[in-house]
């Protein structure tokens, strides 16, 4: 038999009414307590609010940003690095006469081998200089 087709029992409705009554009483008690607490005067330390050290506040904000952004320089840039399906792991090379062979792997190997932003040749120096 489906739940909506079940006959309502007086015990079930009595329990429902009792639960609602307890909930209403609890809300009334908590509401009265909150109102009594809000009516009490709270002294504010006004003199301590006027003396703010701007240098310490700035240093604290800079430290917070540094600790939040710093680990991002060590994250692996290419999520498919060192896998067989990495689309960036392709290179093109050439050799002219007896000169040393030149290829694109010199540039892309840092990323395709699982490097982070701090490992890149040009950008790595900038991230180490600007970020902690």
Automatic annotation (TrEMBL):
Entry annotated with the keyword Signal: yes
Signal peptide: 1-27
Keyword field: Signal
Keyword match Signal: yes
Protein name, UniProt field: ATP-binding protein
Native organism: Streptomyces nymphaeiformis
